[in-house]
Amino acid sequence: MYTPTRRGFINGVDKVANSVIFAIGPVFIVLAIGLIGMATLTYFTVVFPFFYQWDDDYIWTKFSYYAGLLFSIYMVVCIFFHYYMAIRTKPGGVLNAGTAGAESDPTLQGLFIELEEYQEFPKTCKKCHLPKPERAHHCSVCKKCVLRFDHHCPWIANCVGHFNHRYFLLFMTYLVLSCFYFVAVGWKVFLISLDFEQEWDYWMPRPYMALTFLLAVAIGIALGGMCSWHYFLVLTSQTTVEFYNNQYAKRSAQQKGEVVYVNPFDLGCLNNLRQFFNVGQNYKYPIYTIFLPIPISPPGNGKIWEKNSMHYSTVHDDISDDTD
């Protein structure tokens, strides 16, 4: 059991930690841009000229050179675009729409009326004392409720929520693919950079090439795991917070011998993907827009969510059992 003194100490430590995370966000952004920029410079000054060598006598080498150049520029543009959008796009708050051009900010009374239309008893956040839409959670770092909150990321100095989760996931996707591509085409020149007896004809010093290669391996593995985790969450229509809440709900239901808990927002893997990226049938944008570095807004306002038929049947069964 926590004593009042110990509980107060823990709360104080949490507040200090959250304040530090909030304040250090810009430092993480500068560091991330610096590391990605260094890797990009190393790639175009060492790896690209080593792997894509020009030869006037063979048309295939010319084609592969230009194809490789276009692909490389495309990947760099996608990385920086989605990173910028993940930073600059507001994740969505309870009393604001989150993105320019979306619905205007509702009043507190209007928000209650909006939520009461879909929820019989709208919840209220215990920390910010505002109406709490479904799938919204309070961020202790930003000190506000965020729509479809996943987590607070210091690397973007922002919460990952309804309006910027798509940019965040695509940023990780392009960065991971670029890291693996860098390793695949740069491992030979990496070995050369370690052999000081071989001639080094590149402007970038050997240590930078070696460091960048190792960095690409480390980031590719670490961020690849995180990226895979987020795709699992997207396919199952969950956020990180919801995943742990759902696991707890499933265990509680099993212990009580009740009906197995069903995630009400899971519409099936394919529909979950379409909803998340807002593409394909019944959604606003065509599928190919996933591969374009352009602003894409998510479907809906992040406050009201479609639920699956299993959820409604489970609720109906629960009500029937209580009545009997």
TrEMBL record:
Key words of the record: Acyltransferase, Lipoprotein, Membrane, Palmitate, Transferase, Transmembrane, Transmembrane helix
Primary localization: membrane
InterPro entries, per database record: Palmitoyltrfase_DHHC, PFA4/ZDH16/20/ERF2-like
The UniProt record lists the keyword Transcription regulation: no
Subcellular location: Membrane
Membrane topology: Multi-pass membrane protein
Annotated Gene Ontology cellular component terms: membrane
E.C. designation(s): 2.3.1.225
MF GO annotations: protein-cysteine S-palmitoyltransferase activity
Bilayer-spanning residue ranges: 20-51, 63-84, 167-190, 210-234
Pfam families documented for this protein: DHHC
Known catalytic reactions: L-cysteinyl-[protein] + hexadecanoyl-CoA = S-hexadecanoyl-L-cysteinyl-[protein] + CoA
Lineage: superkingdom: Eukaryota
Domain Palmitoyltransferase DHHC: 120-247
Assigned protein family: Belongs to the DHHC palmitoyltransferase family.
Domain description: The DHHC domain is required for palmitoyltransferase activity.
Designated name of the protein: Palmitoyltransferase
Organism: Glomus cerebriforme
